[in-house]
What does this fold into?
Amino acid sequence: MEGRIWRKKEGASGAAIAGLRAVTPASLPETYFSFLAFSNGGEGPLPVQPLWLSLYSAEDVAAIAEQGTFDEFFPGLFVIGSNGAGEGVAFDLRVSEPYPLVAFDMTNADLAESILPIAPHFGAALELIGLDD
It folds into this structure.
């Protein structure tokens, strides 16, 4: 993340990451868990839509998953953040691994209209995080 704009938070504890792993409905990429160990949430620009990433902490993502906050209207999306304004950021579990990272309009449950691709997998998303152009 050197040379990038990222408001880093203290890394997630092993217990927080284990708690998140316990509630994930699929095998999420190790790069995601490694990033949480480096920065348990945080925020910064993206050079693609939604232009800003506010990554939720492992504890917040686990709570969202346990509560099923997005399940009814956004099935198959595993929410890990937002843009801070009305678009969620999620792994799209409706397709096979590696799960793409997508943004979606939290006010539009029509996924065909709502979803915008961010990156084909979390590793590719890491190449974008913190870049503003």
